Amino acid sequence: MIYFMFATGIENSYPTIQGGRVRMDEMEKCRHYDLWRKDFDLVRELGIEYLRYGPPLHNTWLGPDRYDWGFADETYAELRRRDITPITDLCHFGVPDWIGNFQNPDFPGQFARYARAFALRYPWVQLYTPINEMYITALFSAKYGWWNEQMTTDTAFVTALKHIVKANVLAMRAILAVRADAIFIQSESSEYFHAENPAAIRPAEILNAVRFLSLDLNYGHQVSSEMYEYLLDHGMTRAEYHFFLNETRKHHCIMGNDYYVTNEHLVHPDGRTEASGEIFGYSVITTQYYNRYGLPIMHTETNFNQGPGGDEAVRWLRKEWANVLRVRNDGLPIVGFTWYSLTDQVDWDSALRENNGHVNPLGLYDLDRNIRPVGAAYKELIAQWRDVLPTQSVVLSLPIFPPSQQQEPVLRRVENNARERENRYRAAPSDPASSKGT
């Protein structure tokens, strides 16, 4: 049985900028390395039981099969002691220096080995986001030229995307070999592109197809003929495409949809885009993604600037929660909500592409660990709704257990059943209707 998951996150971004000379380590900027025990106190203070969290990859993964688990051992032991369920984020916008960037074809296989090593070391961890926001990672690194490889071509974008999604797929496979009842929450940006005028309809249609590519590949969903040509024209091979169709672990997944006020875009006739602000909103766009993939849903990220009036973030929280309830009342299987993140962020206003040291008041707490109005509002919301939702939120066939129950004998039975279920799924003939194109 799965109950509604109220969550927050501790940002562990670490992309490189300035040609790889500067690493934007949000855990360092937000002082989590020094204050992690206090941060875990705050999670519990809010009444939150689920935390999007992961060790800093660039400091943990030192080389092929070489790891420094020191910080992860401390933090994960404390999460377990406090009975906080981690949704483990293994890769967040960057890679270690020795990998280079997402153009490296060795990344997928090497990352799968890292994922397996993590699962073996922390076998009580059940929930994973192997690679956070695969679409955004590829877009910002290889199409916009902001992070990591800082490239700006369609070929670089497709190369990054296929390596990132393959790494995610192989990581899921590696983790399931260790923990057969693992569940994967794909935290992915949910986007929409609005045409400015009739002349912009065509470029908007293309962008609205590209936005799905990461999840199409990850879930083995056949892309449209136009997107198939786009992928092959820019470096993907037929064999690589069919790998994704054949290797889906969709039945172990929750589709995480991230939504911010910047997720909707206005498209001009020449293909240029700009932020449109909220037009459709979370419920409309998430329904589009659900209709495409048919998976359980989790609202995995949102936040808003506290604003000059001090209540703008609180009003955004209420709006997003109303959208969650709208999705649920429309009959979609939504299982969780996340305010991201626990504390304010640094340099989010430049999408981490400028090292300015700007503190952005987006968190439930400020960087001195004082609660913000939105933190108090979220705490109250959780207390009010926690006992209302659970009985109607049962949507997964695999149960989720908190760390305190991870050693119970029943878990071994659950894991054995999950392994048998996986074997049956692999042996069954594929259903063409489940992978229909657009």
From TrEMBL:
One GO MF term attached to the UniProt entry: hydrolase activity, hydrolyzing O-glycosyl compounds
Top-rank taxon: Bacteria
A GO BP entry: carbohydrate metabolic process
Keyword entries, A-Z: Hydrolase
Chain spans, region Disordered: 417-438
Protein name (database record): Glycoside hydrolase, family 1
Originating organism: Deinococcus aerius
